[in-house]
């Protein structure tokens, strides 16, 4: 038995995902690698050769790699498990777009072969650290790989908030919310709100107001060393903070949300070195007919 261990995370609610995960686990074990699976997923996977671990921040501790099979939500869940342990995550897309994924369902055999051969690279993606203050006191801290979104808590009334960059006020918006995103998250919620697509190797923070009633309500891109802040007005209805669409906390009127570059990145395993442009074209099925390139 090898001293190499791989954590396998999957979406057990999808039969296709279960079949894919079983194939991956069985082939890894056959190649002599140790495999961990998460306790809530173990019964559905029914693989006696795998070690069952609890869903804890250190579930991936000591692993060489985590293979995560599923859609964007499953990949973001995988990021929660690997970040503190600094273990690379290799995503296999079983959903729709899957920008965080490095491979597709039909690539499973190649994925296993490349992992067994240690034939992959690792890159770091910047994250966000998020602090919520009420009356000057820190009441909540969190982090995000894609985005931290401040949203209205009810449909009836807009949020009233003031945006700040590096300690200076930028604008006041009546809006449905504001998304603060990383370059990795620029193709997710921020993109849906009209934000720019930022190439992953560009280090920056992105702020996108959502449905803002204001003359100036454009997305802004600032230095990765900047600090973004959103202050809810004293007369505004309550809001909510969502980190990666998975972790949430309520925001009372007067709350202040500060967003800065995260101290701990997420590491992604890469099998291919194709340009991000090619990935963008493939994921969004962009029309490129007529391109002739350099001659």
Model description:
By secondary structure, the protein is α+β, with helices and mostly antiparallel strands. The protein folds into 2 domains: 140 residues, Probable inorganic polyphosphate/atp-NAD kinase, domain 1 (Rossmann fold), CATH 3.40.50; 134 residues, Probable inorganic polyphosphate/atp-NAD kinase, domain 2 (Tumour Suppressor Smad4, Sandwich). It contains 6 helices and 20 strands. The chain has a 6-stranded parallel beta sheet, with helices on both faces. Helix 2 links the parallel strand 2 and strand 3. Helix 1 runs parallel beside helix 4.
Summarize this, please?
The protein is α+β, with helices and mostly antiparallel strands. The chain contains 6 helices and 20 strands.
What brief labels describe this structure?
295 residues, alpha+beta, Rossmann fold, Tumour Suppressor Smad4, 2 domains, six-stranded parallel β-sheet, six-stranded antiparallel β-sheet, 37% strand, globular, NAD+ kinase activity, ATP-binding, kinase, metal ion binding
List the helices and strands and how they pair.
Elements: E1 5-10, H1 15-30, E2 34-38, H2 39-45, E3 51-53, E4 65-70, H3 72-82, E5 89-93, E6 103-104, H4 108-116, E7 121-125, E8 128-134, E9 137-144, E10 147-152, E11 159-165, E12 168-175, E13 177-181, H5 189-192, E14 205-210, E15 220-222, E16 227-232, E17 239-243, E18 247-251, E19 256-261, E20 266-270, H6 276-284
Parallel strand pairs: 1-2, 1-4, 2-3, 4-5, 5-6
Antiparallel strand pairs: 7-20, 8-9, 8-19, 10-13, 10-17, 11-12, 11-16, 13-14, 14-15, 16-19, 17-18
